[in-house]
Q: What sequence folds into this?
């Protein structure tokens, strides 16, 4: 029996929920927006899938400005942009907005020069087109391999946000958003939402455990904890996300 | 930060000083030749030190801290405490001061108190949200009364503990960076020691940035880098070379405006000289920035941030 399960898992027909360990038929999971029907665990999504389930059908139009906006060095890698972050114009329940989706699957969603540039150009585009900006964040933090240049993306994106403060911005924190992304543009949005169970914070849990020499409680840095501490506006179930975003876009 | 090899330079320094001291006591013979030899030896020791060793110097407990800089450079520092929300963070000190008749606001990371080297009380200069909120309210104070800001950065990073997370560390850093980038007054930042990650960036930007030669400004400590990339901290030297965070590195990439030369063996060997140099640089930049049209200054700041990309 277990062998059959393994084969089914391997070829992707069945998927195991990392939280409750139930085996779920992948098609059913897909229908359920990658939320475990047993325990409501929200699976991590890659950017492409996120766009499919969030935007109206075929409404997403990637912005071509990324490449033009980049400097020669470090940022011109279009492969990298395609993989690390997706952004463009889209409609949600027929309301148009600029949408950006970070891709945790690619190098931990880390923010280096090209991601920084992409975020900045999304903000600029939202300002020019007078549309609200919806940012789906998922990131381990700054791209440390880029050293100081990675760190300064925090400053550059914050600066861009300072200059586009009049643009309505909605951040949706997804699992996980840590470090330099939470501590820069993501935290400067007008409305901050999160998916249930996402971990959101500054320092990674391993670093904190090393500081205090203690194991951390299981819900530490969870969206639920942040909500009760007063840092998030709402926790929104993935099934309600489109509704909620549409409500907000209509409101703005 | 508390490892054994970290004290390497302290030991070398002590030995050299003892040697010099005993030479100076030698009676009746010409000691200049031997003394010169010791000097050459010292120079050779520190000649071409690696980036990692540079960071070790930045972490030395003898290295002058922010309060020593503040007390020497400014005439009359008056510390102001508290974030006006819920606490006071000893890792960030701030207050009012004058630099030769120019009133200004000073904000700094404080690693330890000058005499007692009390690291625990000051959290090794690792700020909590209340520290960042204190910095923000002092910046707003300066802006309201149109006084320039001078910051000193000396921190391994923002405090990575559960209390800080519960109080929204990331949110406080974002707001602090947002404030320092948007205040409508001249800001001068001095990087005097370690400057790690978002915690350093919270105070580590200005219209003009001054940096000490052996200070180390980076996205993460070399140990942290090494443990993320290679799963243990033993490659910290290589990590330091990849991070390229010394004063020389940043000066060469155009990210800082003035490089303060340190005496052979690090700033603690001649603090007076280093502080004199820093003071001169702050004075010149203040003069330059205050003579500029405010709008031009802010436009230049925007350009500066935009241009923070590597040249080829």
A:
């Amino acid at each position: 029996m277990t062998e059959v399960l393994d084969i089914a898992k391997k070829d992707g027909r069945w998927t195991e929920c990392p939280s409750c360990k139930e085996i779920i038929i992948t098609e059913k999971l897909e229908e359920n927006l990658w939320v475990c029907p047993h325990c409501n665990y929200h699976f991590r999504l890659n950017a492409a899938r996120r766009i499919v389930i969030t935007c109206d059908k075929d409404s997403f139009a990637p912005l071509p400005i990324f490449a033009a906006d980049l400097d020669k060095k470090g940022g011109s890698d279009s492969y990298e942009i395609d993989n690390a972050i997706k952004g463009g114009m889209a409609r949600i329940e027929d309301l148009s907005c600029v949408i950006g989706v970070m891709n945790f699957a690619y190098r931990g969603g880390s923010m280096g020069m090209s991601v920084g540039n992409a975020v900045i150009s999304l903000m600029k585009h939202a300002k020019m087109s007078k549309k609200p900006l919806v940012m789906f964040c998922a990131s381990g933090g700054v791209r440390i391999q880029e050293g100081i240049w990675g760190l300064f993306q925090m400053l550059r994106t914050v600066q861009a946000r300072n200059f586009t403060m009049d643009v309505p911005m909605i951040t949706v924190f997804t699992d996980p958003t840590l470090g330099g992304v939470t501590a820069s543009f993501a935290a400067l949005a007008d409305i901050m939402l999160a998916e249930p169970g996402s971990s959101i914070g500054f320092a990674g849990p391993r670093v904190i455990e090393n500081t205090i020499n203690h194991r951390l409680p299981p819900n530490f840095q969870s969206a639920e904890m942040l909500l009760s501490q007063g840092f998030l506006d709402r926790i929104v179930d993935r099934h309600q996300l489109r509704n909620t975003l549409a409500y907000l876009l209509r409101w703005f | 930060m508390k490892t054994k090899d970290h004290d390497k330079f302290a030991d070398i320094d002590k030995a050299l000083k003892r040697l010099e001291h005993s030479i100076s006591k030698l009676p009746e013979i010409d000691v200049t030749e031997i003394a010169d030899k010791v000097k050459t030896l010292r120079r050779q020791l520190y000649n071409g030190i690696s980036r990692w060793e540079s960071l070790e110097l930045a972490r030395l407990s003898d290295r002058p801290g922010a309060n020593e800089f503040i007390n020497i450079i400014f005439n009359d520092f008056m510390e102001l405490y508290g974030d006006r929300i819920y606490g006071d963070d000893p890792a960030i000190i701030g207050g009012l001061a004058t630099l030769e008749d120019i009133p200004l606001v000073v904000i700094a990371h404080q690693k330890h108190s000058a005499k007692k080297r009390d690291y625990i009380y000051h959290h090794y200069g690792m700020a909590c949200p209340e520290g960042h909120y204190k910095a923000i309210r002092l910046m707003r104070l300066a802006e309201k009364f149109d006084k320039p800001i001078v910051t000193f950065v000396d921190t391994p990073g923002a405090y990575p503990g559960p209390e800080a997370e519960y109080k929204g560390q990331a949110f406080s850093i974002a707001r602090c960076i947002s404030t320092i980038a948007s205040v409508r007054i001249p800001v001068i930042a001095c990087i005097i020691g370690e400057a790690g990650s978002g915690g350093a960036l919270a105070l580590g930007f200005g219209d003009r940035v001054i940096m000490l030669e052996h200070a180390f400004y980076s996205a993460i400590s070399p140990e942290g880098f090494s443990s993320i990339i290679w799963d243990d901290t033993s490659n910290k030297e290589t990590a330091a070379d990849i991070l390229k965070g010394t004063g020389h590195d940043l000066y060469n990439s155009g990210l800082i405006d003035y490089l303060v030369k340190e005496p052979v063996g690090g700033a603690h060997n001649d603090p007076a000289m280093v502080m004199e140099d820093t003071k001169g640089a702050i004075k010149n930049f203040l003069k330059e920035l205050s003579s500029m049209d405010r709008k031009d200054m802010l436009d230049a700041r925007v350009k500066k941030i935009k241009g923070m990309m590597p040249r080829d």
